[in-house]
Amino acid sequence: MKRYALEQGEVESALAELPGWQVKEGKLHKEYKFGSFAQAVGWMVSAAIEADKMDHHPEWSNVYNRVMVNLVTHSLDNAISNLDVALATKMQALADGRKP
Length: 100
Known about the structure:
The structure is a single chain. The chain has one domain (about 10-95): Gyrase A, domain 2 (2-Layer Sandwich). About 40% of the residues lie in helices and about 20% in strands. It is of the alpha+beta class and about 100 residues long. The model has no long low-confidence stretch (mean pLDDT about 95). Helix 2 (about 35-55) runs antiparallel to helix 3.
């Protein structure tokens, strides 16, 4: 998939389709909360597989049952790109129990 930076309107349109996601410090951001540490880590493993397939990797951290995610494309001067939206969409599907 070709990487390209999104215009502000494109980011806003994408956010309308991504519940709970927002732009924070110039990055797509969301904090997920799961029922347990094991569920949080399990989701991270599933999301990591999808990210690796895309060759696009998140900035994220885990504390117990929470996972904080930031997405930005470093190779496009830290712009929010189509890949960030695609990965956020896959992450959301996994969190919702759907196939990405």
